[in-house]
Design goal:
- It is a single chain.
- This protein has a domain at 192-282.
- It contains 52 helices and two strands.
- It has a two-stranded antiparallel sheet.
- Helix 26 runs antiparallel to helix 27.
- It holds the Pfam family Sel1.
């Protein structure tokens, strides 16, 4: 690379020529990839430039450019100009130029005399290959023999002077003339001699001669060794042969590690051959898995396997995708076979799969499941009674009913007392929208907790920490979560850590940290991952990375994936941390969820081989009808990953899945037509699709949340706040914390319902306590704006403090303002600036707003001494980060200038602010007729639990 940089800065003739030759021969990709990639376009440009500078290098420059014109390197073929350049070069004594002229003219029967004359000149100048070409043109056997002998002698003499090129030419001569293994051996010997003198292309031919199975020289081990030597020296063709040797199984001894290494290097330079071979390997693997899957399934379908336990085991293989291509449909068919043979276990698995896979819930399937499960439950089967209860709770085959579901659970409980059933009953009551029914869950959770159920401990701790169903008891909640974590319940670690934060106090963060540290010390393999996620939620990305690395090196797939996601997100570059993504491919195992996560991650970096691997996994998962796989594959088509962007194909894939009952596909189609970015906007079609989902799953939280937003914000339909409320209520009751928060805001502002500050407070507190951190800021607003009650600055401060500690930027900003103004807390300018600066460093929509607040603080002296230099620095940061208020303030200053250029800049900033819906900018520009009034645009940002909670 240093040589390249040095040559790139030279403008003298010899320097330009040397640069052209280097570019033509190829430049190593990077320090890790040895392959040398030619840049013919730039090489031709440099050779042309070298010709414009007179000097002793001119003849060599004409030779180089002539070769490129003859080979169409870096541009179009130009034989006439090439011949003129080569003839000029030959006239100065360039032997190779004379040979190329003769060799080119020899193809034209009318120019044979000129061809011979140039070849004879080349031969006299010592170019041995010219003698071989003259021999080929001769009609006399004696003359041909003499010319060949002369050429061989000439090259041997040159080789005796350590001329590597002459050894290569002798190898070429014997290889092309070879009629026997003895002649091929002579060629190999000369290639070896030339290679020993440093002729790199000779190494490739040493490998090539030993890789031909039909000859006596065939030596697959040595062939691969020399191919690797040549590839390490930059030879792309050698790397291709290594890849081909593995992909085509042509007798070469190429293992998977060598294939993986060289195919990746080739893919890095966008080598189409390598990508094709890799793709075919993936397809072959997929076809082989498909054949195995088909063969196993066919054996069962034909009755060759009759044992029920074996049929159920194979069904589980298809259900989980272990060893076969996962297929819920096939798993269901196998379970049904067991059901038809009166198998209780088959009926239980059949029902469980219908619960997990809504797309499989035909009326016939649901009816069969209920019939057999009720029969078994009435005969004392606990598992059958539990599954019937689960189906009843979801309204499968009967109207959804908490009471009826509990009846089935209690039937199971009468057979045998089980903490599993206690937890089921508690869950059923907690899903009710009636607080009185919800409170019934507490007794069952207490009973299950007394029986040492860690799942019950976790749920009861949440109930006690929220304080909505029973009096709040944070101390007991901590005890329960501690006990659950000590029993290995990893998900209780985050709950316990977050509870310490909710409790607050100077030791809250340290207590949270200690919670994870203890679990890590006990050897819990997932504890470092949970600890890292906790630290990330508080913006401590760098502190999280060592824990993820430790877990990944210990064999944790989730840690490897999280590490890649963290590093790539932090850098803004999907290729950062790619080594951890590659590690994840080795750790993924057969778990469908892990493979799905891996497939989506593999599509992100700019690495065609990883993209192909992810695409292949998704195709397999689509074949197996894995939930979400169709959407991910459609997204890959839309984003143009692996293949060119193909929105039409994406829609086809989604529609096919929709017709097969895939609810996720219906949702994605609806979202596409609602957003109108990739396909023409069609709100009516979107609503039709959303309602189609609700006809199958009336309580689907995501769809109800989307519909609430559509009607509440008037997206494609007339705005109707009242119509949105029932959808928010259903989504909230179904467990969506985002919907719970939105419903709190509805009652807070009286949007579609009468204002109810108490109800708003309850909903927002529940959402915040369950991890939806933006709700802490909403609670502070409820107490600081005097909505329906007296202003309570202290409460507002406490709520903002909780949100700020959780990393919520809006809360950080309000906390900073509170410290600066002394609102709900004694004035503390240093603390105020600290929180505003921390908010300004936070990525996301609120960071630029924090920068603007810092500008105001220093500009106006709000709680601090005025400092116009600092103020202007923050104003510029806020403006450049996209804050419309900062753009507006900048515009006002510039518009007041006497300088017309600055006035124009001011107008530009005001228009930018207007485009971001800044009201004052819009009013001024409209009044001055300097810009159209900004059309009100309804935001289409989809509400989700994930966006704010992760």
């Amino acid at each position: 690379m240093q040589q390249i940089h040095a040559l790139a800065n030279r403008t003298d003739g010899p320097g330009l020529l040397e640069y052209a030759r280097l570019l033509r021969s190829g430049v190593q990709v990077d320090a890790d990839n040895p392959l040398a990639v030619p840049d013919y376009f730039k090489a031709r440009k440099m050779a042309e430039a070298a010709l414009t500078v007179q000097g002793t290098h001119t003849a060599e420059a004409k030779l180089t450019l002539g070769k490129m014109l003859l080979a169409s390197e870096g541009g179009a073929y130009d034989g006439d100009r090439a011949l003129r350049l080569l003839q000029d070069s030959a006239s100065t004594g360039q032997a190779e130029a004379a040979y190329l002229v003769g060799n080119t003219l020899a193809a034209n029967p009318g120019r044979l005399a000129d061809a011979r004359r140039n070849l004879q000149l080349a031969m006299r100048l010592g170019f041995g290959a010219a003698a071989f070409k003259l021999s080929a043109l001769s009609q006399s056997e004696a003359e041909r023999s003499a010319l060949n002998s002369f050429g061989i002698t000439l090259l041997e003499k040159r080789f005796a002077t350590s001329d590597a090129r002459s050894g290569y030419e002798l190898g070429e001569y014997y290889r092309r003339q070879a009629q026997s293994d003895e002649a091929l051996k002579l060629a190999l010997d000369w290639y070896r001699k030339a290679s020993d003198l440093g002729h790199e292309r000779s190494t490739y031919w040493m490998a090539r001669l030993q890789s031909e199975p039909g000859t006596g020289l065939f030596n697959p081990k040595e062939a691969v060794r020399y191919y690797e030597i040549a590839a390490e020296a930059g030879d792309i063709a050698a790397a291709r042969e290594i890849v081909r040797g593995f992909a085509e199984a042509n007798g070469l001894e190429v293992d998977k590690a060598k294939f993986d290494r060289w195919v990746r290097y080739l893919a890095q330079i966008n080598d189409s051959t390598a990508i094709l071979y890799f793709s075919s390997q993936l397809e072959r693997s997929l076809l082989e898995r498909q054949k195995i899957s088909d063969a196993i399934f066919t054996r069962v379908a034909k009755g060759e396997i009759r044992d029920i336990d074996e049929i159920l085991r194979i069904g589980e293989m298809f259900d989980a995708g272990n060893g076969v291509i996962g297929s819920a449909a096939r798993a269901l068919q196998l379970y049904q076979m067991a059901v038809e043979r009166k198998s209780r276990d088959g009926a239980v698995r059949f029902g469980e799969l219908l619960i997990a896979q809504p797309a499989l819930r035909t009326d016939e399937n649901v009816a069969l499941a209920r019939l057999r499960l009720e029969e078994f439950a009435n005969n004392g089967s606990v598992n059958s009674a539990v599954v019937i209860g689960d189906m009843t709770l979801k309204g499968m085959g009967v109207p959804a009913s908490t009471a009826k579901a509990v009846e089935w659970y209690q039937k199971a409980q009468t057979v045998t007392s089980s903490v599993r059933v206690m937890n089921r009953i508690a869950n059923a009551y907690l899903l009710s929208t009636d607080p009185a029914e919800q409170r019934k869950a507490v007794g069952f959770l207490e009973s299950a907790t007394a029986a040492n159920s860690d799942a019950a401990m976790l749920k009861l701790a949440k109930v006690l920490s929220q304080g909505t169903l029973v009096p709040q008891n944070l101390e007991r909640a901590v005890e329960l979560l501690t006990a659950a974590s000590e029993r290995g319940r990893t998900d209780s670690l985050s709950e316990l850590a977050n509870l310490y934060i909710v409790i607050g106090g100077p030791d809250s963060l340290q207590n949270a940290y200690t919670t994870f540290a203890k679990a890590v010390a006990t050897g819990n393999p997932e504890a470092p991952v949970e600890m890292a996620r906790f630290l990330q939620s508080y913006g401590k990305m760098k502190d999280a990375i060592p824990f993820l690395k430790k877990a990944a090196k210990g064999g944790s797939f989730s840690a490897a994936i999280d590490l890649y996601e963290t590093l790539s997100a932090e850098s803004g570059d999907a290729n950062t941390g790619i080594e951890w993504l590659q590690m994840a491919t080795d750790l993924v195992g057969e778990t469908r969820q892990n493979r799905f996560l891996l497939a989506k991650a593999l599509l992100r970096p700019n690495d065609k081989l990883l993209n192909l691997q992810g695409f292949s996994i998704l195709q397999e998962m689509v074949t197996g009808k894995v939930p979400g796989a169709v959407n991910a594959l459609a997204a890959a088509y839309i984003e143009g990953r692996v293949v060119a962007q193909d929105v039409h194909r994406a829609v086809q894939v989604l529609e096919t899945a929709m017709n097969q009952g895939d609810i996720d596909a219906v949702l994605m189609l609806a979202d596409l037509y609602l957003e109108g970015t990739e396909v023409p906007s069609d709100p009516d079609k979107a609503l039709t699709y959303y309602r189609k989902v609700l006809s199958i799953e009336p309580e689907n939280a995501s769809v109800n949340l989307r519909l609430a937003q559509i009607f509440g914000d008037g997206i494609g339909v007339p705005a109707d706040k009242a119509k949105a409320v029932p959808y928010y209520q259903i989504a909230s009751a179904a467990g969506s914390r985002a919907a719970q928060r939105e419903l709190g805001l509805v009652y807070m502002w009286g949007a579609g319902v009468p204002s109810d500050p108490d109800r708003a407070h309850q909903l927002l507190l529940e959402a915040a306590s369950q991890g939806f951190d933006r709700a802490w800021h909403d609670l502070s607003l409820l107490n600081s704006a005097g909505i329906g009650s007296d202003i309570d600055p202290q409460a507002a401060f406490q709520y903002n403090y909780k949100g700020a500690e959780r990393g919520q930027t809006a809360s950080m900003i309000q906390l900073g303002i509170a410290f600066l103004a002394g609102f709900g807390v004694p004035k503390d300018p240093e603390a105020g600036i600290f929180w505003l600066e921390r908010a300004a460093e936070t990525p996301g929509e609120f960071g630029p707003g924090a920068m603007y607040r810092l500008y105001e603080a220093y500009h106006l002296g709000l709680g601090v001494e005025k400092d116009q230099s600092l103020a202007q620095s923050w104003l510029k940061k806020a403006r450049d980060a996209g804050n419309p208020s900062a753009m507006f303030q900048t515009a006002l200053v510039l518009r007041a200038s006497a300088n017309s250029s600055e006035q124009a800049d001011g107008l530009m900033w005001m228009k930018k602010a207007q485009s971001l819906k800044h009201n004052q900018s819009n009013k001024i520009l409209t009044r001055l007729a300097l810009g159209p009034a900004a059309r009100p645009v309804v935001g289409q940002q989809t509400l989700s639990d994930e966006a704010d909670e992760e």
